[in-house]
Design a protein that fits this description.
Protein name: Heterochromatin protein 1
Organism: Dissostichus eleginoides (Patagonian toothfish)
Number of strands: 8
Structural class: alpha+beta
Shape: extended
Number of helices: 5
InterPro entries: Chromo-like_dom_sf
Largest sheet: 4 strands, antiparallel
Helix content: 25-40%
Strand order of the largest sheet: 7-6-5-8
Distance between the termini: 58 Å
């Protein structure tokens, strides 16, 4: 009897059966096709901004709908969740579900619960953002006195995992005493 062929996940390095397409631990894709990997590398934030600027977002969603239909034709039972920021509140996420299950009351109730759970996952952010206690900053961009206490305006670096950006904030200068940067010049990257 032959042993099952295993391949490591490119994200978490867990060994998975070669026949499956998704990692059993981190749920990342196990595709090893170089053409796919090269294409995925080009889909960055710059690409996304171009799609929004050219008003092609609906075209991408329509392509996803077609992919769901193709998978259905191949015998897969697909549920696709996608989320977008709410137009009224930038801190709130709205989730949508794309599937071709029969529209029964039970299916609708289950999919609605799954959609709400997905919205909660989206609003929580990445694990690093929620649990880190030390934040990296780019530079000190201003100084002021507030109620007799010195404060520095800090330009924060984005999260290294999810690229979440942070607004500039005024922090107590005593947290940055070891830095000798002037307000106009960038200081060394540090942490607060």
């Amino acid at each position: 009897m032959t042993r099952p062929k295993l391949r490591p996940c490119p994200t978490c390095q867990t060994l998975n059966k070669a026949s499956i397409k998704t990692c059993t631990v981190c749920y990342g894709t196990l595709s090893t096709k170089t053409k796919f990997i090269k294409k995925a590398a080009t889909l960055d934030g710059k690409w996304g901004q171009g799609v929004v600027r050219n008003r092609n977002v609906n075209r991408i969603i329509d392509s996803a709908r077609i992919a769901v239909l193709k998978l259905e034709a191949l015998g897969f039972k697909t549920i696709l969740f996608y989320g977008h920021r709410d137009n009224k509140s930038l801190n709130k996420w709205v989730a949508d579900v794309m599937t071709h299950f029969a529209a029964s009351s039970v299916n609708k109730a289950i999919l609605d619960k799954m959609r709400r759970v997905y919205e909660i996952l989206l609003s929580k952010g990445c694990r690093k953002c929620n649990h880190q206690k030390v934040f990296l900053f780019e530079k000190i961009i201003g100084r002021r006195m507030n109620e007799g206490k010195a404060e520095c305006e800090i330009c924060w670096l984005p999260c290294s995992v999810c690229n979440r950006t942070w607004d500039n904030t005024w922090e107590p200068a005593c947290n940055f005493e070891c830095l000798t940067a002037t307000p106009e010049s960038p200081g060394p990257s540090g942490s607060a």
